[in-house]
Design goal:
single chain; 8-stranded mixed sheet; 4-stranded antiparallel sheet; 2 helices
Length: 540
């Protein structure tokens, strides 16, 4: 028996024993171009949606009518309907609450029409609906939550629609396995790669429907060489190294103004790095300075101000270029990369109340960058310099010993690492030539791919929420944001940062607070810019 035969049988069953018996409805209750029996009506060719039906009508069929849209509350006059059929009509839109008041409706067939759009709340209130057909229309997508509240559905027919099988259809693929109903879905009309594919054969896991965006939020007026995030007394903070302003500036979140504000600062002329360390209630800040010596500052408690505590290795740190924090044998240490000919990169570890030199590293090599990382369960240190390839040290016997260098990596200005899928990756910054991404293979770092980066001083990975990003900052072009694709194992372009454009970016950091995520971009020749991280659901 075909679909039309089944519908006819349903009409006869719903009409009851009165079908075929001569019955004259009350005057004015059967509109023109309609045939009425005791409990059912069939209207064909009418130009408008009839309104003068009996309120006890159980079934209504509308065929080839001139109705152009189904508006909210179109069937409030027939609240007893159990079956409603639309076939070969010309309407193209179904609005929210089009079937309001039909709490007893069990069968809704909207077939062979010209429907191209259906509102997400069009079916709201149909709590008795068991059979729904939207077959053979012009629907390319269905709004998310269209079937919300339809807990009694047992049969759904969506066949014959030109569905675009992109992110907008993902919710439907995820919904189908969760319902106790048979669903006929048909095939995809697009995109080209999925044309003629059965919807039921699509794997929701293959859809990439989550995107991110970094939009400008706030500016901090002075230029900066470095930026770090840290947590103190349960609150996230940011510290900026501002050489021209001659200070380390600490920012915190103003919950009233919903902006970042200055909380504290310490004087540090010609500062290149401000490295924070929190030990209980105490906050330490290492201020690495080009001139005048590097210093360690301390805030003994949350209600006190930062105060100078100690001069750091004045005979070894003559021209510091970078500072990093690392933990060795359970103790906090700083490593300061020195770029002078007479100085040396120095490891300073906590000893009693202060931090004192533990080891000199890489003397005479004019180091520009230090990166602490863990490989094979042991602490490692990677030093980049102007005179040779980056050198990897490992912690052995209470000191760092040279392990290997990185081949094919000349003129590397800085290195940063990240972890993904159990692997360790390196981002190597090169001012002239291509910056590089490498992966640790158990014995050495091997090249994965290269990125054009003329004028780059920073290629920094950041894990923000679920996204492993890397930002390639340039002095001559827009800074590029890349995102790590775990399936390919590669960094792929995501967006450019700006406007406003970053002017000579040197470092990036991110902070999460009050359910929001922010990215800080420290710029050497312009103000520090703050961007907000947004997650976008492309399936919405």
């Amino acid at each position: 028996m075909g679909r039309s035969g089944i519908l006819l049988l349903l009409l006869l069953l719903l009409a009851g024993p009165g079908v075929g018996v001569a019955w004259r409805p009350p005057k004015g209750k059967c509109p023109p171009r309609c045939s009425c029996s005791k409990d059912s009506a069939l209207c064909e060719g009418s130009q408008d949606l009839p309104e003068s039906f009996s309120p006890t009508l159980l079934s209504l069929s509308l065929v080839r009518t001139g109705v152009t849209q189904l508006k909210a509350g179109s069937f409030l006059r027939v609240p007893s309907l159990h079956l409603l059929l639309f076939t070969s009509n010309s309407f193209s839109v179904i609005e929210d609450d089009a079937f309001a008041g039909l709490s007893h409706l069990q069968y809704l067939f909207i077939e062979d029409n010209e429907i191209g759009s259906i509102s997400k709340n069009a079916l709201r209130g149909l709590r008795s609906l068991t059979h729904l057909s939207l077959a053979n229309n012009h629907l390319e997508v269905l709004p998310r939550f269209l079937f919300r509240g339809l807990e009694t559905l047992t049969h759904v027919d969506l066949r014959g629609n030109p569905f675009q099988c992109d992110c907008r259809i993902l919710w439907l693929l995820q919904w189908m396995p969760t319902v106790n109903a048979s669903v006929g879905t048909g095939t995809c009309a697009g995109p080209a790669a999925l044309t003629h594919m059965q919807l039921r054969h699509l794997d929701p896991k293959t859809f990439k429907c989550r995107a991110i965006e970094l939009s400008w939020f706030q500016m901090v007026g002075e230029s900066a060489l470095g930026v770090e995030s840290f947590s103190y007394q349960g609150e996230p903070h940011i510290i900026l190294a501002q050489p021209f302003a001659g200070r380390c500036l600490i920012l915190s979140w103003d919950y009233g103004l919903q902006r970042f504000r200055t909380e504290d600062e310490l004087p540090a002329p010609s500062v290149v790095s401000c490295k924070p360390l929190v030990l209980g209630p105490r906050l330490f800040v290492l201020a690495a300075r080009l001139w005048g010596g590097s210093q360690l500052w301390v805030r003994p408690g949350p209600d006190l101000r930062l105060a100078p505590m100690q001069a750091l290795a004045p005979r070894r740190l003559l021209r510091p270029n970078d500072a990093e924090l690392l933990w060795l044998d359970g103790q906090p240490c700083f490593v300061v990369a020195d770029a002078s000919k007479a100085g040396s990169t120095t490891l300073l570890c906590r000893d009693g109340p202060g931090f004192y030199p533990r080891q000199s590293l890489h003397a005479w090599h004019r180091d520009t960058d230090a990166e602490a990382l863990e490989l094979d369960g042991r602490p490692h240190l990677l030093l980049a310099s102007a005179s040779q390839r980056p050198v990897l040290f490992h912690w052995f016997g209470g000191r760092f010993e040279r392990r290997t260098d990185i081949p094919e990596a000349e003129d590397v200005y800085a290195t940063r690492h990240f972890q993904a899928g159990g692997d360790v990756f390196l981002c190597l910054t090169r001012y002239i030539g291509d910056s590089m991404v490498m992966r640790w293979d158990g014995s050495m770092f091997r090249l994965l791919h290269q990125l054009p980066s003329r004028g780059a001083h920073v290629f920094q990975p950041l894990l923000i929420a679920r996204d492993q990003l890397a930002i390639l900052g340039s002095d001559f072009a827009f800074s590029q944001v890349l995102r790590f694709d775990p399936d390919k194992g590669l960094l792929e372009p995501l967006q450019e940062l700006g406007p406003p454009a970053l002017v000579a970016p040197r470092a990036f950091a991110h902070v999460t607070l009050a359910g929001r995520r922010f990215l800080f971009a420290a710029c050497f020749k312009g103000p520090t810019q703050i961007y907000q991280h947004h997650e976008l659901d492309l399936s919405a």
